Amino acid sequence: MGLALIDQDGVVADFEQGLLDKLSERNDDAPRIELADRRIFSAREQYEQVSPPRHDEVDAIMHAEGFYAGLPEIPGAKKALNQMAEAGHEVFLCTAPLKDSPWCIPEKVGWVVAHLGPEWLPRIIITRDKTLIGARHLPCVLVDDRPGITGLAEPLWTHVLFHAAYNQREDGPRLSCWEDWPDVLGPLL
Amino acid sequence: MGLALIDQDGVVADFEQGLLDKLSERNDDAPRIELADRRIFSAREQYEQVSPPRHDEVDAIMHAEGFYAGLPEIPGAKKALNQMAEAGHEVFLCTAPLKDSPWCIPEKVGWVVAHLGPEWLPRIIITRDKTLIGARHLPCVLVDDRPGITGLAEPLWTHVLFHAAYNQREDGPRLSCWEDWPDVLGPLL
Fold this sequence. Notes:
Two copies of one chain form a homodimer.
Chain A (H helix, E strand, L loop, with lengths): L2 E4 L8 H12 L16 H5 L7 H9 L13 H10 L3 E6 L8 H12 L8 E3 L13 E5 L13 E5 L11 E2 L5 H4 L5
Parallel strand pairs in A: 1-2, 1-4, 2-3, 4-5, 5-6
């Protein structure tokens, strides 16, 4: 039995698909980056490199009311989270909000209630520094699509990368899809 | 240099005064408990014991839109938090939201921005289980008015009780007012 910390964007909520949908709606002629071609974790940074640059649009979309509330689900996430909890693991959502958006935190919380159910509300941890979260004496994993997570503390968790095109060259344990959780996370918990 | 985790309600935001003000507004003839006579951490529980009971009113007030946003400041908290940060400590707000209120989380976050400043937004940690927060290799304190904080983990922090009438009989390190932080927290950090 262990502690499973699960990132929200890119792991249970499909930030990348949501962003691509919004960019597609806006202007069909402007360049867009297909999900398989995303190479930099920060979408904003990669859209700064297209011609003409669209990073201001990316910023505007991420900071607009309704964006986080409207993200689709990552397939299999809800089922896997419930299976992990049923298997006796302590499962928490662990999410780092935008620093400068009034919508981000309430919409992320609302998303969890709407998509995973209100029983997950007490299991949300909101923090900009994920290295501060863990439990001594319990095996811990952090499932997150962001490579190289650092912070103030030496983390208590093992980072398992949730697969995305922009993290495919990173080393370390990797969860390619939620169906694989028992094989990948099971031995670590 | 250490990690200071600072609870929000009853430590920087004056939940008790806010609640008493709302109860006073509602009905001048109904019983109310002065702050010095609060004996149980849960206001709801103590208001269940007055005659006639007012715990339903307490519940309604706590769950109403605007309650958390409108709380007054605990005197000296803002100054002390800034002084701790200037002294080189890592200071985070660490708050456990209501499980069943759509207003609590966004209003707590809004309160921090409005009263402490937007620079504190990245330093908010929202979690129902505070034992999961800490940093190995750093001295840690949790300043909290709630006695007997437990959770999944053996905590990395020393609990320093922030004084209130309802916790006056508890043992352990105690911060009586924010002006005392250098003497009480300094040696622990």
